[in-house]
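name: query_chain
kind: protein
chains: 1
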Amino acid sequence: SLTLRRTVDAKEERRSYSICAPAGRPPRVAVREVPQGMFSRWLTREVRAGDEIEVLPPTGRFTPDVAVAGHHVLIAAGSGITPVLSIAASVLTNTDSQVTLLYGNRRTDTVMFAEELADLKDAHNTQLDLVHVLSREPREAELFTGRLDAAKLRELLPALLDVESVDHWWLCGPFGMVTDAHAVLVEFGVDPVRVHQELFYVDDLPPPPVRHEEAGIEGPSSEVLVVLDGRTTPVTIARNVTVLDGAQRVRPDLPFACKGGVCGTCRAKVTDGEVDLRRNYALDQSELDAGFVLTCQSLPVSDAVTVDYDA
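structure:
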């Protein structure tokens, strides 16, 4: 994903958007306007060709190894198609790979990248099985009508493919769809290592509470060492303040985007001490087991903590 940055009323705002260009092509992102969305409305209504936008380096691990042939099943809904389109186009460059793409929308006129998906199907007809599922528009086949929820997926997947033969599953969309799909795959006995997911993040969250930490920290605190770009910086952080918020006072260059536990941009490894990860929609179990956390959702617990963004 790419994190875009702008300053509004002296406050820095960031949003993370999935890259929808295939590997080897110039990067691009797709933005669907969100009602009352401060950032998305600016991008869709005010930004013009030739304008410059601050962009952080690409991040994320929602990427396939296109060199290894396999059968990839992609399940997306709504704006979740953005990274999935990139994954599909990239995987299909390997002529020995197969892609099954299930894409849920309300109606035909709400399908993002409809023409590009059709072109991709035409170019890779024997490799790509493209299935549109519409919730508010009847289809000839009842199987393809309805929401991509757990019940629909239990019906669709066995009818379309051999679940056991799939090499990788890619899930992207709203929280409910992704969690439903993940649960159904668990029911079908799919190895969690083969399942990759990325949540579609709603554009705007309520503004975080203002903290005046520069006036002095009250209550319990932790001594935190922050490692980024080979440089270690110490900082004292109150235990009711996230590692990211507290450390930004001394390291404003720390990576972040959503601050909602969704995008994974603020990922770091706890190499010493303990933190409380309150919310996590970005890291899988193997990352958690290895000590990685989302610093935007992690409160320091032990007296001393070290977090390494370079790990």
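note: The chain has a mean pLDDT of 91.
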